[in-house]
């Protein structure tokens, strides 16, 4: 009987964690970042379920169970096959690894010293600030108008920065940005 109660409490905790994961996936900043990333929404959700849910639960979750909590695109039902979950997880891991190798390649070539990446540093700092604000506000039982405005202004600023970063000019040298467009 104790084992069944533990299993039920684990399932309830997993449901709560996966529900939180799905809420995070709906945030406008995260959506914008995901759109520009190498990860599909299914890959991101799968990666979050694999890493975050298990770590927060503090115990191992089978891939069968993880797969049962993944969303199905275009439906309100949940759950995918274990094979689909594992394929998507492998694709996500491969995409993240390729992204990291790309960043290391750019570092090897000395391009991180370039001013080209300064806007990315600014956005990363703003996102860190935003997360800290969210963490502080998450602990409050009631939000003031000032709290809500602070979050809205910060979100709008970050979204604006992300729009600028999606411009082709960002990944050009300082000299190329000043030169009339020949392309």
Describe this protein's structure.
This protein has helices at about 1-25, 30-35, 40-55, 65-70, 80-110, 120-140, 145-165, 175-180. It folds into 2 domains: about 1-110, no CATH class; about 115-175. α4 (about 65-70) crosses α5 (about 80-110) and α6 (about 120-140) runs antiparallel to α7. The mean pLDDT is about 85. The chain is mainly alpha-helical and about 180 residues long. The N and C termini lie far apart (about 70 Å). It is about 70% helix and about 0% strand.
Radius of gyration: 20 Å
Percent in strands: under 5%
H-E order: HHHHHHHH
Average pLDDT across residues? 83
Distance between the termini: 71 Å
Tally of distinct domains: 2
Shape: globular
Biggest beta sheet summary:
none
Question: How many strands appear in the DSSP assignment?
Answer: 0
Low-confidence parts, pLDDT < 50 over ≥5 residues? none
Give the helix/strand class.
mainly alpha
Key terms:
183 residues, 8 helices, 2 domains, 0% strand, mainly alpha
What is the gist of this entry?
With 183 residues, the protein is mostly helical. It is built from eight helices and no strands. The protein has helices at 2-24, 28-35, 41-57, 63-69, 82-108, 118-138, 145-165, 174-178.
Write the layout of secondary structure elements.
Layout: H1 2-24, H2 28-35, H3 41-57, H4 63-69, H5 82-108, H6 118-138, H7 145-165, H8 174-178
């Amino acid at each position: 009987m104790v084992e069944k109660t533990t299993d039920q409490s684990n399932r309830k905790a997993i449901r709560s964690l996966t529900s939180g994961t799905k809420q995070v996936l709906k945030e406008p900043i995260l959506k914008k970042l995901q759109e520009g990333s190498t990860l599909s929404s299914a890959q991101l959700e799968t990666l979050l379920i694999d890493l975050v849910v298990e770590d927060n639960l503090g115990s191992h979750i089978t891939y069968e169970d993880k797969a049962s909590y993944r969303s199905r695109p275009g439906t309100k039902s949940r759950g995918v096959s274990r094979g689909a979950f594992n394929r998507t997880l492998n694709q996500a891991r491969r995409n993240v690894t390729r992204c990291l190798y790309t960043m290391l390649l750019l570092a090897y070539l000395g391009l991180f010293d370039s001013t080209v990446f300064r806007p990315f540093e600014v956005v990363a700092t703003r996102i860190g600030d935003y997360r800290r604000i969210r963490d502080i506000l998450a602990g409050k039982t009631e939000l003031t108008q000032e709290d809500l405005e602070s979050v809205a202004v910060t979100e709008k600023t970050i979204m604006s920065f992300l729009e600028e970063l999606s411009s082709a000019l960002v990944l050009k040298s300082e000299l190329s940005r000043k030169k009339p467009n020949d392309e």
